[in-house]
Specification:
InterPro entries: CheY-like_superfamily (IPR011006), Cyclic-di-GMP_PDE-like (IPR050706), DUF3369 (IPR021800), EAL_dom (IPR001633), EAL_sf (IPR035919), GGDEF_dom (IPR000160), Nucleotide_cyclase (IPR029787), Rev_trsase/Diguanyl_cyclase (IPR043128)
CATH topology of the largest domain: TIM Barrel
Distance between the termini: 114 Å
Strand content: 15-25%
Protein name: EAL domain-containing protein
Strand order of the largest sheet: 20-21-23-24-25-26-27-28
Number of helices: 26
Largest sheet: 8 strands, mixed, barrel
GO molecular function, one term: cyclic-guanylate-specific phosphodiesterase activity
Radius of gyration: 40 Å
CATH superfamily of the largest domain: EAL domain
Keywords: Phosphoprotein
Shape: elongated
Pfam families: DUF3369, EAL, GGDEF
Number of strands: 28
CATH class of the largest domain: Alpha Beta
CATH architecture of the largest domain: Alpha-Beta Barrel
């Protein structure tokens, strides 16, 4: 016979927290005792079976050895359990054929097979699948552990506890009614949400079990490494109802405090003639203890029932508190304790679907220049400032409003329109905030939505408020703006186009066309401008004026621009191979693309990979882009020029160029905007601006090209003014690469002849 560990006393950290009934000589049982305890292992991992039997196979529990029954899937276990008898403990894996196969098997065992006595220990190697409060409530499991925490001693302790529980339940037929009450009480408790409700339910259920009035307190004691803290009342009833959320001390309640300290020290229940003090073992350096007055001494069976009940409740208290912490983390801001974005959306949904919608207004409150304050005075100071803002919004706006924090420095106020209005909210920021003895003056910008005018979900309302906030910011800070439907249509159309553009780019619906550039004297082509086009799946074209700003806004222009650059360079190489040697390829560069930190690297790589000669590649930048950050541009253009690529300023004359900066820019060509070309024959001012640009280019030694030339008279006037080059519908419309090659080889030469 192997050595028995029945009298083994594990170290304190290895002790199982469950408390079971003392073993008493039992009356003859209905079921004859077996020679072994039968333990069923249900797991799809063979190693789990072997390690479990290796750890427990040579040990005695309750003076009997163990006999193991093995199932390697939930389906196999279903079949075996129909015939197997006297299974005392089931060690059940959560994840087998499906993620929740173990949980479904629990329901099958309890409800279909009606096996109420067997103890089920849920084990998981994946903590994410450990049962939460719903699973504990809905499935009759007795314990759950992660496989990583089940050392040999802890596995022995857990299985021993389960076998003892099984044995006791089988023996105590005379306490069946009490056990039924425990099951009912546990079910009732598991249906309660929140730590406070659960704790109050524990007091109520204990009183029901004993047939007593509810009169007592339940406390929690934290015991970190630096020593145990005071007892904190989690629930109170009867004469102690006013003690909720207070500290319980010997000075306030000497009898209760003394009884609880004694119970915590001995880690067991204590019974008096008129009171009971119950111990609930908690995890993570935490313990729970309850004190209830009784009008009589408890019977032995009542004491036994309480022992079993306390072991069940201990697990429930730990888990409901864990769920409560997870709930707070998911729905409340850790710093301000206000509802976060997720919780606010829930509140908004309820408001929109309720009777208060017509009178409600939602306002985003964005603190102006908070980042600068945070950087200058430190993050701790910034956190204290955010807390101060949260407290002022809550205390000054009234209890009937919802105040939330949905971002770093963005708060939200929801409530009646009479209170949620710009005057009231912005007025709160007129008085400085005092932080660490320092006065800090803040201002805010608001984006507001009247829910009566809103159609959609709470998340939609929050998006609309954000749209209004962005509009308020664009119209100067320290102001406000109310959302209107026209704003929403504009923004949603932009978002729709952004997604469509991203999809079109990935599905090769974008393509490059080329518009020839002509020598006005010889009427021969000297180059072409590469232009990006978008044709949708139904054959419709989307104007570049619409989709280029969207590409810039979304950042997609970076990848699109590089693709256009490479495509145009490859076409240039192909044209040169076809014999068109003296031909320049002009490529437009977006401001967003130009500012990208790796733009130079993109350009160099495109030239190297395609083999395009840089002296025949020209980059076009806009005049407004050239003038916005001239110092940065001067440095950038110098680096670009080192690659051999030339630079042109597009749409010249439409901006507000500084001639002093223009002289410093290393550019090669000016491009006359089509608006001034049109004026040559269609305006009283005639050719004055076009003539001025041509003369400026001549004086600065820059080439000049006119775009948008649509009739012969415009071409003749430009030629007479000294403009050497032009492009426009008069000469050729933008065309595909294949069409350009054919046009250069045939149509263009015929046109010149």
């Amino acid at each position: 016979m192997p050595q028995s560990l029945e009298n083994h006393v594990p170290a304190k950290d290895d002790q199982d927290d469950l408390v079971f009934l003392e073993e008493h000589p039992a009356a003859p049982a209905t079921h004859a005792p077996r020679e072994v305890w039968r333990v069923m292992i249900i797991d799809d991992d063979e190693d789990v079976h072997s390690t479990t039997t290796f750890a427990l196979g040579n040990l005695d529990m309750q003076h009997r050895p163990l006999e193991f029954v093995h199932a390697y899937s939930a389906g196999q276990a279903r079949e075996m359990l129909r015939h197997e008898e006297e299974i005392a403990v089931i060690l059940l894996d959560v994840v087998m054929e499906q993620d929740d196969a173990g949980l479904h098997l629990v329901r099958y065992i309890r409800e279909t097979l009606k096996l109420a006595d067997v103890r089920i220990i849920l084990r998981t190697g994946q903590p994410g699948y450990a049962p939460e409060i719903d699973a504990i409530r809905d499935y009759d499991i007795n314990d759950y552990k992660t496989k990583s925490e089940l050392t040999r001693i802890k596995l022995f302790t857990t299985v021993t506890a389960a076998i003892r529980s099984y044995e006791q339940i089988r023996k105590i037929n005379d306490s069946r009614r009490g056990l039924d009450r425990i099951v009912h009480a546990s079910t009732e408790l598991m249906s309660l949400h929140g730590v406070q409700n659960f704790a109050a339910g524990v007091l109520t259920q204990i009183a029901h079990l004993l047939g007593q009035e509810t009169n007592g307190v339940l406390c929690v004691q934290e015991c970190p490494e630096n020593g145990c803290q005071e007892l904190v009342v989690m629930a109170a009833a009867g004469q102690y109802v006013n003690h909720n959320n207070t500290q319980l001390t010997c000075s306030t309640e000497p009898r209760i405090a003394s009884a609880m300290e004694h119970t915590l020290e001995e880690r067991r229940n204590h019974y008096e003639d008129d009171a009971v003090t119950l111990y609930f073992a908690g995890k993570a350096s935490r313990a729970f203890v309850a004190f209830l007055h009784t009008n009589r001494a408890l019977t032995e069976i009542e004491q036994r029932l309480l022992e079993v009940f306390c072991s069940n409740v201990a697990v429930g208290l730990d888990n409901v508190e864990l769920v409560s912490h997870l709930h707070n983390a998911a729905f409340y801001d850790a710093l301000s304790k206000l509802p976060n974005r997720t919780r606010l959306v829930e509140i908004l949904d309820a408001t929109i679907s309720g009777p208060g919608k017509d009178d409600a207004t939602l306002s985003l409150v964005d603190l102006d220049h908070f980042a600068e304050t945070n950087d200058a005075l430190g993050h701790q100071f910034g956190d204290e400032l955010l807390v101060a803002v949260a407290e002022r919004l809550q205390s000054r706006l009234g209890q009937h409003l919802t105040v939330a924090r949905i971002g770093g420095d963005i708060f939200c106020v929801l409530g009646d329109a009479t209170q949620v209005n710009p005057t009231t909210i912005l007025g709160l920021f007129q008085v400085p905030f005092s932080i660490e003895g320092q006065d800090v003056q803040l201002s805010a910008t608001l984006g507001l939505v009247r829910l009566a005018e809103h159609e959609g979900t709470g998340a939609d309302a929050l998006k609309d408020a954000d749209i209004a906030l962005k509009r308020a910011k664009s119209m100067q800070r320290a102001g406000h703006f109310y959302y209107s439907r026209s704003m929403g249509v504009e923004i949603r159309e932009r978002v729709r186009m952004m997604h469509a553009l991203r999809s079109a780019f990935s599905q090769n619906q974008l393509f490059v066309v080329y518009q020839p550039q002509i020598d006005l004297v010889t009427r021969r082509p000297v180059g072409a401008e590469a232009l990006l086009r978008w044709q949708t799946a139904d054959g419709k074209f989307v104007s570049p004026d619409k989709f280029i700003p969207i590409a810039e806004y979304s950042g997609l222009i970076i990848d699109m621009g590089e693709w256009v650059m490479r495509t145009a360079c490859r076409e240039l190489v192909a044209l040169r191979a076809a014999g068109h040697d003296n031909f320049t390829m002009s490529i437009n560069v977006s401001q967003v693309q130009f500012r990208h930190p790796y733009f130079l690297e993109m350009l160099r790589r495109a030239l190297a990979d395609t083999g395009a000669p840089p002296e025949f590649v020209e980059l076009e930048i806009t005049e407004s882009m050239a003038m916005e950050e001239p110092d940065m541009l001067i440095k950038m253009l110098a680096q670009i020029k080192q690659t051999g690529v030339s630079i042109a300023i597009d749409d010249f004359g439409t901006g507000f160029s500084s001639l002093s900066y223009l002289q410093r820019l290393q550019i090669d060509r000016l491009k006359i905007d089509r608006a001034f070309v049109t004026e040559i024959t269609g305006s009283a001012r005639g050719s004055s601006i076009a003539e001025m640009v041509i003369q400026l280019g001549r004086n600065l030694g820059l080439a000049v090209i006119a775009e948008g030339v649509e009739d012969e008279r415009q071409a003749q006037i430009l030629q007479s003014l000294g403009c050497p080059l032009a492009q426009g519908f008069l000469f050729a419309r933008p065309m595909t690469a294949d069409a350009l090659n054919g046009w250069l080889s045939n149509d263009a030469l015929e046109g010149v002849a």
